[in-house]
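Re-run requested by the PI after the first attempt was lost when the workstation crashed. Everything re-entered from the original request form. Ligand of interest: S-adenosylmethionine.
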Amino acid sequence: MIDWGTGTYELTATQLAPAAERAVAAAEIVPGDRVLDVACGTGNAALLAAMRGAQVTGVDQAERLLEVAAGRARAAGVEVDWRAGDAVALPCEDDAFDAALSVFGVIFAPAAPAVAELVRVTAPGGRVVLVTWTREGTVAAGSGILRRAMADTGAIPAAGPGLDPAVVDWGDPEHLAGLFAPHGGEVEVERYGHAFEGASPEAFADEWMERHPMWLSGREALGDEAFAALRDPLVAVLSEGNEDPDAFRATSTALVVHVQLP
Ligand SMILES: C[S@@+](CC[C@H](N)C(=O)[O-])C[C@H]1O[C@@H](n2cnc3c(N)ncnc32)[C@H](O)[C@@H]1O
């Protein structure tokens, strides 16, 4: 179980901001839309939707991140209804939203129940937009180092998108279509390259290992020594996939998943 409130998720949220822009654009948010951002973290997508004039609710299970999100909303001069809650038991009424978004969010929750909740709270004819990771690319390979180490201890299953018990490939369009099929949702998927940047592969690895909630959860499960031993293989993977000889840049493939509900 990852405690997303530990460490400094804010750093990662900055790197993921372009994905929220894609989600809000794909959902075609217009003024007055009722919008839900599930697993909103520090509020990247929720804030963008609110800036478009939508009535926005943001739900996340990490209360510290909701406080950060609320501070950002105040600074931006927009109102968002922030609620602590679980993606598989959303604190929201049935049919309450025109659009439900989740940017690298529900991929950390059990898939079928999280999809059922997205559909339940979205009004008939509404849309769901997700951004998910595929397993392609250097950053996914780097995360895989932690995942394999944790799977070896039995702390998590051997597969899965993050460190989550839901063993689902959220990067497989067929699988995604299958998740929404029971709800009559029509799924369209667009792939894009999401670039991660840093000063060097070493600096990027250290930022992850010292500040990213997922890696900090890994340190707790593995113990300090086994955790520290992951740095060299991580730096090796990041160096091998580095696209910028003067710094660090690696492009991962992500999916923008647009679901039209009946
Ligand atoms: C990678 S972050 C993405 C955050 C945000 N959507 C963004 O784009 O920056 C994953 C988020 O999912 C949240 N999360 C994970 N599992 C959750 C669950 N079952 N219910 C609610 N939030 C969850 C975490 O607290 C974290 O904020």
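Saved to the shared folder this time. The chain has one domain: 9-260.
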